[in-house]
Amino acid sequence: MNAFIVISIIKAAVVAFVLLTAVAYLQWVERKVIAHIQVRMGPYRVGPHGLLQPLADVIKLITKEDLVPPYVNKPLYLFAPFIAVCMALLAIAVIPFGPTINVAGYSTWMQLTDLNIGVLYILAASSMGVYGIALAGWASNNKYALIGGLRSSAQMISYELPMAIAIASPLLLSNTLSLRELVGTQAGGIWHWNVLRGPFPQIISFIVFLIAAFAETNRVPFDLPEAENELVAGFHVEYSSMKFASFFMAEYLNMVTVSAMATLLFLGGWDPLWPAQYGSNLIPTVIFLIAGLTALYHAANPARKMDKYTFPAFGIVFLILAGIFLLPIVQSWLLPLFWFCAKTGAILFAFIWVRGTLPRFRYDQLMRFAWKFMFPVAMLNLLVTSFLVAWVS
Amino acid sequence: MAEVPISWFLTLSAILFALGVAGFLFRRNIITVFMSIELMLNAVNLTFVTFSYQLKQVNGHLFSFFVMVVAAAEAAVGLAIILTIFKNRSTLQIDDIDSMKN
Amino acid sequence: MDVILFLVFAIIAVVSAVNVVVQTHPISSAVSLIGVMGSLAVLYLLLGGEFIAAAQVIVYAGAVMVLFIFVILLLNAGAESKSGRSFMVQLLGVPLLIALLGLLAFFVQRLFPRGVSVHFGGFTGGTAQAVGKALFTTYLLPFEVTSLLILIAILGAIVLARKEID
Asked: Which residues of A make CB contacts under 8 Å with C?
C-alpha cells in the first residue's frame, strides 16, 4: 500500500512535469513549422534555433501585470481558467504511454491509473472543459467575450456528438472501454490496428474523430471564437498574463489528449509498425542516425554563421540518441514509448500542418458541417460497423 | 469504521430532495425553479443507485439511467419554453406571468 | 477511508445544494448545481456504479447544465428582485419543510438500522458491460421508447425556439 502511494506520487509528478514542458515546446514546434510553411525562419535568436523561446515566453507572461478589471464577476473570472486547465490535466490521468516498466524492483504500468471506463472518463473530462470557456466569456462582462464564449461552447458541444459516435465504432471492434486493454487488442502489427482491421476498417471513423478533435480543441479551421482578428480575440480578451497563459496551456493540453486518444483508439497505441521479431526495434535507431548524419552533413557548409556550431551539436545529440535505442536495458520501455510518442507526434504535426494551410470556417458553416454532415456520417459508420461485427461473429 | 452505513446515503438523498422542494416553492426566478427540479431528480437517482447496491442488482442503475434521459429531454423542452416566455413577456419572474389570473 | 470520502463529498453536495437555493443570481445557482452533480458522481463511484457516474458527468454536468448556462447567458437574467416576497410563505413553509425532512430521515433510520455497509468493491455489477447487457435484454422496450421520447423532445425544442418567419 505504501509503495503504491509513493509510486503513484512519483508517476504523477513525472507526468505533470514532462507534460508541461512538452506543452511549452509544442508551442515552439508549432511556431517553427508554421514559419517554414510560410517560407520564413520562426524563432531563431533566443538560444540555438529558438529553443529557449518558450522559456522567454514563460518569463514574459509571469512578469506581466496581472490585471483584474474592476467590472468583472470576480469569482467566476478567477475560476474559469482554473477549470479549463484542471479538466485538461485530468483527462491525461488515464492515458497509457507504454507497457510496464521496472524501476528498482517495482514494476508499474506507464499510466497514472487505469479505469474500466477509461474512454468514458476522457469524454467526461472534455465535456467539463466547456465550462472554462463559457464562464470566462460570461465573467468578463464584455459583449465580445460573451459572444465568443457562447460560440465556442456551442461549437464544442456540437462536435462532442460526432466525436463520441466516432469513438464508439472502434470500441465495437475492441470490446473494451479500458484504455490499457484497448491497446492490447490491437497488438501485432499495422494490420491489427483498429484503423485497418477487422470486418470494417475504421478509416472514416478516424477522419471524423480527427475533424471533431480539431473543433473540440478550437483549432484552425474551427478557431473562429478565439482568432485574433475575429471578435477582438473572443472569450479571453479581458485576461492577462498567467490566466491568459492557462487558457493556451489548456488548449495545447487538449490537443495532446485528443492526439493520444486517436493513437490509442485507432493507431494501436504503443505497438510497433510490424512485430519486433522482424526488426522493427531498429527503426528509431535508423531514424536518429539519418537525422544525425543530415545535421552533420549540413554542418560542413552551413548557410548561416551560427549554424557552424549548432548543427554539429545537434548531429552529435542525435547520434547519441540513436545509440541509446540500441541498449537492451532500456529497450523494453523506451521502444513502446518511442512508438507512442511518434504516432502522437505525427497527429500533432497534422494539427500544426492544417493550421498553416487551411482558412477558417465561418460560424454558420461550422455548425452546419457538424449537424448536417459529420453526425450522419458518423452514425452511418457506426451502423455499418455494428452490422458487420454482428454478421462476422 | 471503514464502511459507510447505507442509511447515510438515504439521508443525504432526503436532504437534497428537501432542498430541491424548498427551491421549487420559494424561488421566483423560473430558471432557479427549474434547477431545483433537476436537484430533486438527482436526489432520486442517488436513492435508486443506493438501493441497487443494497439488493446487489443492476436494475437500480438502469432506472437511474432512464431518469437521466428523461431529465435531459425535459430540460431541453423546458428551456425552450422559457425562451419563448421570455421572448413574449420579457420577464423571468414567475409572479409576473399571471395574465390568466382574473 | 471510505467514510472520509463519503463525508467530504456529502458535505460538498449539501453546501452546493443550499447554495443553489439561496443564491440570487441564476448563474451562481447553476455553477453550484454543477458542484452537486460532480459530488454525486463521486458518491456513485463509492456505490459501485461506475457507468452511472460517468453518465452523470457526461450527460448531466456536461450537457444539461451547459444548456442551462447557455439560456442564462442568452437571456442575460439578472439577480432576482427582493420585492413582493411574502413573509407568510416563509413563516409557514420553512417549518413544514423541516418536518418533511425529519419525517423522511426518521423513516430511513427506522427501516434500515442494520442495513448493508457501503465500501469500495462491495458491488461490482455496475460496469458498463452489466448495464449494457441489462439495457438490451430486460429493458429493451423502455430503451426504444426513450429514444422516441428524445426525438419528440428535439422536435419540440426546435419548434418552440425557432424564429418567427414573417
From this structure: 76, 79, 115-117, 120-121, 123-124, 127-128, 130-131, 134-135, 137-138, 146, 149-150, 153-154, 157, 177
